[in-house]
Specification:
The chain has 97 residues and is mainly alpha-helical. It has one domain. Helix content is 71%, strand content 0%. The termini are far apart. The mean pLDDT is 78.
């Protein structure tokens, strides 16, 4: 049996962090899906200008997570708190009339 090397530990850490980010993205997907189900059956009060920025934010998070994995950068995989605040603000804005 070979000893666990630093790379092996890094790989495990990175996989767990990327998995955590994908779980968070799934939570965002649920938010967007709920918004769609609510607003798709009702007349629009305002244009849906907040949905594309939400999608862009999620795409950037996915790109950053994959890039961090490819570049073996475990610190970059952590979600930026600013992204969380942006997503929360966009989510709240969708429900405002």
């Amino acid at each position: 049996m070979q000893p666990i090397m630093a790379y092996d530990l890094w790989l495990i850490k990175s996989i767990l962090e990327v998995d955590s980010e994908f779980e968070r993205l799934d939570d965002y997907r649920k938010i967007i899906s709920k918004i769609y189900l609510i607003i798709s059956t009702q007349p629009r009060i305002k244009p849906l200008i907040d949905i594309p920025p939400m999608a862009d934010l999620i795409i950037n998070i996915i790109r950053r997570a994959i890039g961090a994995y490819v570049n073996r950068d475990g610190e970059t995989t952590l979600l930026n708190p600013i992204d969380v605040h942006k997503m929360d603000a966009l989510d709240n804005q969708v429900y405002r009339a």
